[in-house]
Amino acid sequence: MWFRLLAVCIGIWGISGCAFQAERASSDTANQAFEADKAAVQALFDQPYIDPLTRFLKQPQGQQLPQDLQNKIRVERDRRCQAVAQEYAQRPLTAQSLARYRAGYQYSCPDDVDAFAERLKVQSKDSNQAAETASGQSDEVSDDPDAAAETQRQQTTSTASVGADAISSQQLNDCYLLTQIRNFSDALDACQEPAEKGYVKAQRNMAMMAYTLEDYERARLWAEKAASQSGQAANILGEMYAQGQGVNVDLAQARHWFLEAVRLGYAKAQSRLETLPADESQ
C-alpha cells in the first residue's frame, strides 16, 4: 500500500511540476513579448520625427500593442505636435508659412495645421474689410456740404461696423491660436463667446479642450453642437461612447459618430473604426 501511495504522490508531483513548467514558460514568453514591445516604442521615441509615430500606430504591429503603450505613443506624438505648433505661432501668418506647415506636418498634426489655416483666413478677411473701407472713403467725394456730411456719417458708421467685426475676428484668432499652442486656460475664455454665438470651430475647440481636461459633460455639450459640421467634434463623441467617458459605453453610437467623422473628412476616425470592437448587442 505504501508503494502505491508513493507512486500516486510521485505522479501528482510530476503533473504539478509539468504544469508549473508550462506556466513558467508561458509567463517567460509573455514577458519577452512585452519587453520587445517596449523596445520598439523606445526606438520610436529615440528618433526625432513625428510621422514614424503616426505610421506605427496605423500598422498592425502598433494596433496589437497593449493599450497603455499605444497611449504613450499618442501622448508623445501630441507633445511633439504641440512643440511644432508653438514654433509656428511665432512665424509670420502667411500663405507661405501655411504651405510649409502643411508639407511637413499635415499627416501627423492635422488639427494644428487647420488651426493655423483658420488664423490666416481670419487675418485675410480683416485685411480685405479694411481695404474695402479705405477704398470707399477715398472714392466718396461731393461738392454738396449736406451730401458730404451724410457721406461722412455713413463712412463713420461703416468704419465702426468694421471695427466691431475686427474685434470679433481678433477674438476668433485668439481662440484658434491659444488652442493651437495648448494654452487652454486662456483659450477657454477666448473661445467661449464665439462658441456661444454659433461659430463651429470655436465650439469644436471648446469640446476638444474640455475632453482633454476630462470635463466630459462639457465636452459632450459642445461636441454635440458642432458634430454635424466638424469631424473632430464627431470623433470626440465617438471616443466618449467607445470608452464610456461621461456616458455609458455604447458601441453602436460610437460607430455612428466615427462614421460621421469620416464623412466630414476627419481621417483619424477611420483607424478608430477599424479597431472598434464588434457590438455584441446586435
TrEMBL record:
InterPro entries: Sel1-like (IPR006597), Sel1_AlgK (IPR050767), TPR-like_helical_dom_sf (IPR011990)
Region annotation (Disordered) ranges: 124-164
Family matches, as Gene3D superfamilies: Tetratricopeptide repeat domain
SUPFAM superfamilies: HCP-like
Listed Polar residues bias regions: 125-139, 151-164
Superkingdom of the organism of origin: Bacteria
Segment forming the signal sequence: 1-21
UniProt keyword Signal, yes or no: yes
Keywords tagged on the record: Signal
Matching PANTHER family: ERAD-ASSOCIATED E3 UBIQUITIN-PROTEIN LIGASE COMPONENT HRD3, SEL-1-LIKE PROTEIN
Name used for this protein in its record: Sel1 repeat family protein
Upper classification of the organism: Bacteria, Pseudomonadati, Pseudomonadota, Gammaproteobacteria, Oceanospirillales
